[in-house]
Amino acid sequence: MPRPSRRALAHLATELERALAGAFIDKVHVPEPRTLLLRIAGRSPERLLIDLEIGHPRVILTARWPETPKTPDHTTLLLRGALEGARVAAVRADDDRRLVLALTRGGGRRELVVQVAGRYHNAAVIAGEGAEEARLIAAIPGVDADAPALRDGPDPEEALTGRAFFTALDRRTWAEHDARAEGRAFDAVARRIARERKRLARLVAAAEGDLQRAADAEADRARGELLKTALGQVARGASEVTVTDWSREGAPEVVVPLDPALDARANMERYFKRYRRMARATPGIEARLLEHMEALEALDALAAAVSALRVGEDADGQRTTRLAELAAALPPEREQAPPSSRSADAPALPYREFRAADGAVILVGRGARHNDALTFKVARGNDLWLHARDVPGAHVILRVARGVEPAHEAILDAALLAAHHSEARDEGVVDVMWTERKHVRKAKGAAPGLVSVAASRNLAVRPDAARLERLYQSTRTLDHPA
Fold this sequence. Notes:
482 residues; alpha+beta; ibrinogen binding protein from staphylococcus aureus fold; six-stranded antiparallel β-sheet; five-stranded antiparallel β-sheet; 8 helices
């Protein structure tokens, strides 16, 4: 399930207070960028795991956690300085938006605030006077006071307390986490298969074209034979000659094109040379075509096996292992091509430009600071502004001329790019908000890329590989015009 309901958050706070009140935090780790791990004195082998996966935040007592780095980074050191040695005084659900651990250390008070509602999930340590001492994710707010509250909904562990509650919560949330991770792994393999299928289809088409050109070379041999019988008829500088083809029924007259710069014999040799070259190449072309077609058949079989594995029962719990074994048959992923060449002195634009189906210009920000530049320096007030809802991602601008209504397909194109260039890109459905640029404001002192939005509307965007490929083809065309 996604974010907890109000009831589930309140229940979690109650159970954590019963379990942790009076205990000390004796070790802090940051195993992953969105994960905070606390070792609580007296709770071994369990840890308090704060996992802030986008759309799926969870706080659990668990004996399972990601591997911790051997060398702490700057964020870990800050959090250790703020939390280690602190005593848990109380735990509460705050304003249907946050889970708060009230802490004491050396006579001072502070709070570990875990934001589970709204766009930004984060964990921040707030001192007694309200100053922030540290936060887990530096790029987004530690506490989002304006986030919409959690919704009413079920509490799957409502009937449980104590050890039974934590065991059930641990089992359920890890199962959901693993299912999402498995889904992402299958999606990643499916994308690799799609890319490989497209590559092989191009190779097959190229080989078929070469084979057709090889077949056409038989006509070059016939023209050479005709010229051989009419060398004395060709005038110097002629661009063609008409020759009787005595080998065909009715002895038709055939026009043979010539290179005026060559004499008759040289033209004849040119035709024979082209024929011999293609004749020598034909066996290799046929072998190449067969190889590519067999590879396509093998890829289709692999895709069918992956699909069957995904929908089948996982009786022995080895589905992920078998997926990795199947994926190993795919060619290794190629490194990204270097960026298109530009003058060393030319500044990089803060956006990447795409073209919608109707030719409308779509601009996609390249990062947080570039998002700001795109939205507030490049975009015009009547342009459309789009962004994946409740997750970090690129600002997207759909250029709209004054007084012109944007095409629906252009809006869908821009929304797909907003979803694809966000941290929710692997979700099945991504909510994308959109509004006119004039309704987007930059709060004073806000981090780069953070904005407030009014009068926004919503689009539920599903993956569309064909549409995305068309959009990326448009930007390749812009980078390398014909």
